[in-house]
Write a structure and sequence with these properties.
Helix content: 40-55%
CATH class: Alpha Beta
Distance between the termini: 17 Å
Number of helices: 8
Radius of gyration: 21 Å
Structural class: alpha/beta
Order of helices and strands: HEHEEHHEHEHEHH
Largest sheet: 6 strands, mixed
Mean pLDDT: 84
Strand order of the largest sheet: 3-2-1-4-5-6
Strand content: 15-25%
CATH superfamily: von Willebrand factor, type A domain
Low-confidence stretches: 1-21, 212-238
CATH topology: Rossmann fold
């Protein structure tokens, strides 16, 4: 390969990692407990934990789609499911989470799973078993157990049947993520209290979000430039 072609290939590498289509993206529905068992101060800690984790971890290259729902006796959309493919969309997501007003009633985990699953299937065109296989996820955070609405185990199993996994972050000793274990379709994370929530949600989202491609891009780009430089040196010695 000529030096000009090798250098051109190196310069083209960032384009290979510049973005993702909806079919390539992780599709994540965040369902957040706003029930009355959470104090106002702890609800703020929960919101701030999500904001800090997403600020640090979420790409703006379209490799993740995020939707946010708050649940209590019902389910409220806080941020409609969409690809995060710009800084403006990431800012809008963080702003929406920060602006959430606690619903302060009972705990409808099953309804939140059903709501998020319906939104994910609509967004993907019911392709979580095929094109988006392994990339569709509902992320529940709660400090209690389901006490109203749909059975959460039934909801988690129904979501899984369409290719959507359900993970749970339980906060404190009263948190009940057994719907997840019974379904056998997701992973549990634990925070001892809301003071520990930020560290727990950061670890959880680190495992769920598509990692940033920039370090890989820069490594390959650098390798291409090194290769071009080495080729130039060899040519100069033989000239």
């Amino acid at each position: 390969m000529s030096r000009s072609k090798l250098l051109g290939a190196a310069l083209a590498l960032p384009l290979m990692f510049a973005g993702a289509t909806s079919a390539q993206a992780n599709i994540i529905g965040l369902t957040i407990d706003g029930s009355g068992s959470i104090s106002a101060a702890d609800f703020t800690l929960q919101k701030n934990g999500y904001i800090a984790a997403l600020t640090a971890l979420l790409n703006t290259d379209g490799s993740n789609a995020i939707g946010v729902w708050q649940f209590s006796s019902g389910v409220q959309t806080e941020f409609s499911l969409q690809l995060i493919d710009s800084a403006a969309k990431k800012t809008a997501l963080l702003t929406a989470i920060g602006a959430m007003v606690q619903l302060n009633s009972t705990t409808a985990i099953g309804d939140s799973i059903n709501t998020a699953a319906a939104a994910i299937n609509a967004f993907t065109g019911n392709t979580c078993l095929t094109t988006n296989a392994g990339k569709c996820l509902i992320d529940v955070s709660t400090d209690g157990g389901n006490n109203t609405g749909s059975n959460p185990t039934t909801a988690a199993n129904a979501a899984f049947a369409t290719g959507i996994r359900t993970n749970c972050l339980g906060v404190g000793g009263s948190a009940d993520c057994s719907f997840n274990n019974a379904a056998g379709v997701g992973i549990d994370f634990i925070a001892n209290n809301f003071a520990a929530f930020q560290a727990a949600i950061t670890a959880k989202l680190s495992a769920e979000l598509t990692p940033t491609p920039e370090p890989i891009t820069l490594t390959l780009f650098g390798a291409g430039l090194v290769g071009a430089a080495a080729l130039r040196r060899r040519k100069s010695k033989t000239a």
